[in-house]
Amino acid sequence: MQLGKPTHVPHAGGILKNYINGAFTCGERYFDNINPVNGQVINRVCEASQAQVDAAVQAAKTALTGCWQQLSVEERCAILHRVADGIEARFEEFVAAEMADTGKSLTQAQTIDIPRAAANFRAFADAVKSQSAECFHTDTPDGRGALNYSVNKPIGVVAVIAPWNLPLLLLTWKLAPALATGNTVVIKPSEETPATATLLAEVMDAVGVPAGVFNLVHGFGDNSTGAMLTQHSQIDAVTFTGESRTGSAIMRAASAGVKSLSFELGGKNAALIFADCDFEAAVAGTRRSVFTNGGQVCLCTERVYVERSIFDRFVAAMKEQAEAIKIGWPTELDTDMGPLISHKHRDKVLSYIAAAKADGAKVICGGGVPSFGDERDLGAFVEPSIFTGLSESSQLQRQEVFGPICHITPFDSEEEAVALANDSDYGLAATVWTQDLSRGHRVAQQMDVGVAWVNSWYLRDLRTPFGGIKLSGVGREGGMHSLSFYSEPMNICIKL
Ligand code: NAD
Q1: Are 368 and 486 contained in the same domain?
Q2: Are 381 and 288 within one domain?
Q3: Model pTM greater than 0.85?
Q4: Per-residue pLDDT tens over the stretch 63-82
Q5: pLDDT tens across 473-488, in order?
């Protein structure tokens, strides 16, 4: 993998097509793919029609038993390793495409998004070889007994619907285990980030993934490809990452067919900073957890609770850190933060900032739109912003913003800190900063979330369970949890 500066954006000025049954196809409708750095059109995207969605689902259904399940696990996994090789062989193109679509920094695209996407294929191709099945010896009245054992079967045709914040990483996090366990797929990337999914289709094609096993349809959610997939009678399961309210809509749509669902949804994550923490580490870690990817990671911290004795010092240190964040061109190596994904999303983030100010928030830093004096002024940038002084019932403290913002609140006791953190409709992630080992365990275990970190953030091991509770999701993914979602265990009982 080369860590040079990408110069060429694949398909710039061209067309991003759907990939159905092993062929790249267009249709009648197109939409623009916009670079959020300067508002320029990068390329145009073919929006799949109902007939194309039907064709993609039919191709996946035919390929399921027609070829993919006829391959041995070894053969399927060898193909998935070749997909990872194919991503790495075109590493710079993937990086350039992801940066152009999202405006994320070169460093992040090179060190997280694209390498982790390749790693997802390798990890799940290897993990599926160790997928276990249950076996029980059962007593029977005649004393001879019975043997019950299970076999893992694929669910069938899986719709993979992905968001825009970590486009290829989150798409492959679902796609790789779905394919490894023998399912076939129809994927729908976000309309904001269609490029790397299209490059992935080219890789799938080039490395010999059989026609119909992997299908890509571009489009939007409501009244478009997203809804067509979730309502489709031949889709057996929907795996979705995105907003909680979209999850509700998909749940309603999928209920008619009683489809299996896996949801990774929004968060309103808390960080608890105790006075006994390693202060510098807590400040640096909280800076990362608030501002990484412009705050557009589901795991990002938006609510920070700090023990009162270090509150003023912590707020001052966070202000210094936030003001040192370099916002700008994603291609420059010292850029920390690019724009938000779109002007529409920036409008949403700015509306939360306006509401916070109206509710009486004290602006510690940021709170506005930066000015560059060049074409970036046409982009979707927002300043890193920190607020204090709001009540826990304010809109900013209740709803997910998904931008480079946080609110900092003081607390007086461990019990109060735990209660504040858990007072949320969401339950995705939490971070705890303390040097007291017992407190670290104790507080982490009391967090009503799917993932809690002590003295770190976003330290991920792909084998561990990942997901949220409350509005933050349904089910768990990661390691064997992913494999079990994408498999149907079937029990066979043998009378001895
Ligand atoms: P979104 O819900 O707007 O869109 C996600 C995907 O769903 C897109 O592909 C979109 O086209 C599609 N979609 C929208 N409406 C649909 C419908 N009615 N039927 C079918 N598909 C539909 O989310 P987003 O704005 O792309 O992503 C940001 C959100 O994702 C945030 O809330 C964030 O917290 C969440 N997220 C969660 C995780 C996690 O692991 N828990 C990870 C990343 C992002």
Answers
A1: no
A2: yes
A3: yes
A4: 999 999 999 999 999 999 99
A5: 999 999 999 999 999 9
The CATH number assigned to the domain holding 409 equals 3.40.309.10
What's the pLDDT at 2? 41
Rounded average pLDDT over 365-393: 98
Q: Which domain holds residue 300?
A: 269-461
What is the 266 CA–ligand 1 centroid distance (Å)? 8
C-alpha neighbours within 13 Å on the C-beta side of residue 34: 18
Indicate whether 370 and 283 sit together in one domain.
yes
Number of domains observed in the structure of the chain: 2
Total residue length of the chain: 496
Give the pLDDT confidence score for residue 27 in this predicted structure: 87
CA dihedral of residues 229, 189, 16, 204 (deg, nearest 10): -90
- Side chain identity at residue 120, one-letter code: N
Q: Which residues are catalytic?
A: 264, 298
Q: Please return the burial class of 442, using the count of CB atoms within 10 Å of its CB with bins 0-12, 13-18 and 19+.
A: middle
User: For residue 246, which atom of ligand 1 is closest to its CA?
Assistant: 2
Distance 34 CA to ligand 1 centre (A): 18
Measure 31 CA to ligand 1 centroid, in angstroms: 19
pLDDT digits (tens, 9 = 90+) for 439-469: 999 999 999 999 999 999 999 999 999 999 9
Name the closest-CA residue to atom 26, ligand 1: 163
Q: Which residue is closest in CA terms to ligand 1's atom 43?
A: 298
Whether 37 and 175 map to the same domain: the answer is yes
Instruction: Classify residue 412 as exposed, middle or buried by CB count within 10 Å of its CB (0-12, 13-18, 19+).
Output: exposed
List the residue whose alpha carbon is closest to atom 34 of ligand 1: 266
